[in-house]
Records
---
Amino acid sequence: MSIQNILLIDLFLIGLCIGSFLNVVIYRLPIKTPTLSLSLPKSHCPICKHQLSWYENIPVLSWCVLKGRCRQCKTSISIKYPIFELISGLLLLTPAILGGISVLTVASGLAIITLLPYVYWIKQKTIFNTYMYKWGLIPILTFIVTIIHYAKK
């Protein structure tokens, strides 16, 4: 296996982890309670409150092993979580496959991934305007620069 293939696998795995974190952000940020933040409490089943072990928190793999259910109460876990993680992994991987592994292609993939929560928030009609307008421009501009770069090739 070549170094490039190992790097592509690593990029995909990093994308899965980013997607997993963005799932937490999407779920927790709109909820305004003093007991819920991005870091606390630890990941848990929203029904039975079972705290997830590290091996129940592996992106995509845990969902498959647990057959889409909580290990404790057997409540169904939505397929949207592993799908979102897979999309994030693929979005980080795709620019690197198309344009080779470089800082620009990784930045492009990261830029696209950071736009995913906006799609969800717009769908839920909960947009964080300050974040959207101030920080949302960075990934958009990075993506535009990447498109211009590939158009010149």
---
Amino acid sequence: MNIRKASINDLDGIVDISNKMMDFHCSFDPYYCIYREYEDSKEFYKEELQKEDRLFVVAEDENNRIVGFASAAITSIPNTSAPVIGTLISNFVLDDYRKKGIGTAFFNKRMEWLKEHNVKHVEMSVDANNKYALNLWKKFGFKEYYYRLKKDL
């Protein structure tokens, strides 16, 4: 398994995995499916991959096929003393490749990158129904501090 920084050449593989990630999240709650209506995911990821304050990492199998990706971002508020915040955004691995250390490798790559950029605080979001992911993030030391609620109208 090869874990590396993604490039624009990985766009199609990332979009494919992203679509599978969307299917996965829609299985938790159909609410996630609304994002399919508003986003051209290929254009979105093309722009994201080129931003300096973003990191994408991919996992490739022995055939150089992308089997997972993860991303992180750095956010700051200019002209304030607010701290620079790191955000773990996406993290998804295909079913057949789970529980093989890819999630841990993704976490380590992103944390290393955030530390290199002097980030002191890291945030992330996870679906409340995704118990496996909740346990994984808690294993890495994340703690609950904020609840986000939704209501359909």
---
Amino acid sequence: MQGYWTGFRRFSEKGSALWLVLALTLATRLALILILPQQPFSDGAYYMDRARDLITLHAYQEEGLPTAFWPPGQSFLYAGAMMLFGPGLAGPLIINLLSAMLIAWLVVWFGTHVGHNRAGGIIAGLIYALYPAHIAYTGTVLSETASTAISMA
């Protein structure tokens, strides 16, 4: 077992280990988005509706009235993405993919610096890259992925 750990530690010191974590993060989430596309529901539907209102009506409102029922940050983020990539789900899902990549990089960075061990950071990044709940959240237009990335940064 000691030989495997030594080999992994040597591999983790190379830049290719970080690229492996980032590639796994992107591949798993992109596969989910393409194989099991999700329609907005619950909070995600609300964010998308408010984002469309921001683009078309230039107002953060619900049923014609200004609202502060939910914080507007996610809707503003999605409105910006929709202005760049079109009115569909592509923009918000690209935001989620980029956020997941940032989280993966930050997990490796934190794991490396807090534990003073690059191998530990790579293991933490691999766990994040392959963790089913985090993969699933990236395929939905909910706030968890983007808000986690913003909080960690």
---
Amino acid sequence: MTVFLILLLLYMSVTDIRTRRVPTEMILAGACFFYLYIFILWNREGYAAAREMFTGGAAGAAVMFVITFIAAVLTGMLIRGNALGGGDVRLFSLIGLYLGLTKGLYVIFLTCSFAGAFMFIRMLRKKNRSALSGRRFPLVPFICLSCFTAMMF
């Protein structure tokens, strides 16, 4: 299951870098694969294992969605643009579905840390600080890196 998530995140990272879009079809495919895995787990391991994975994933997805949706609305109001897009919010929810609540929160924290460090270094390299304002940059590669890091621990 983690191999599928890794491949999905790598594909989405490349797509986000090229087009600045997160494909909804891939997020839906990831959710369908998760529920198919739960169905197979239910037939192999029994109801208790499948229920535990389903409830943990549902809680993780719901909390991740709420946190990132609020962040998207607040940053949209403060910055007057899309700092965190809808595709990023849906991707965070998918990661919460796969990793659960605790590791999902780690992913949010690590994504903010990695993207913040990248932007700080980028600002130091630019002489004109306002050159970065209004420019969009892909967030999915940082989400991908954060997800890999959270899966290791």
